[in-house]
Amino acid sequence: MGYSDFKLIEVIDSFGLVIHESSGLFANIQEKEYSELLSTILKENVDLAVAISSEKARS
After folding, report:
1. C-beta separation of 55 from 4 below 8 A
2. Distance (Å, rounded) from C-alpha 12 to C-alpha 34?
3. The model's pTM
4. Which of 6, 33, 34, 48 stands 20 to 30 A from 42 (CA)?
């Protein structure tokens, strides 16, 4: 069963989960510049991953 087949409310009910949400979790983290290598890799691969349309490709 693919991830997209799950509904959050069903998982919460099935496993008796409690969701604790908080905002601003990373608000105090200083931003970093990303490398040129990362930028190049993303430019070359994101369109392909989206086109393949599988969960593994998108991850």
Report:
1. yes
2. 36
3. 0.40
4. 6
**pLDDT tens profile 27-43:** 888 989 999 999 999 88
Longest Cα–Cα distance in the chain: 44
**Contact criterion met (CB below 8 Å) for 8 and 18:** no
Q: Which two tokens stand for residue 29?
A: 């983290």
Secondary structure in 3-state letters for the chain: CCHHHCCHHHHHHHHCCCCCCCCCCCCCCCCCCCCHHHHHHHHHHHHHHHHHCCHHHHC
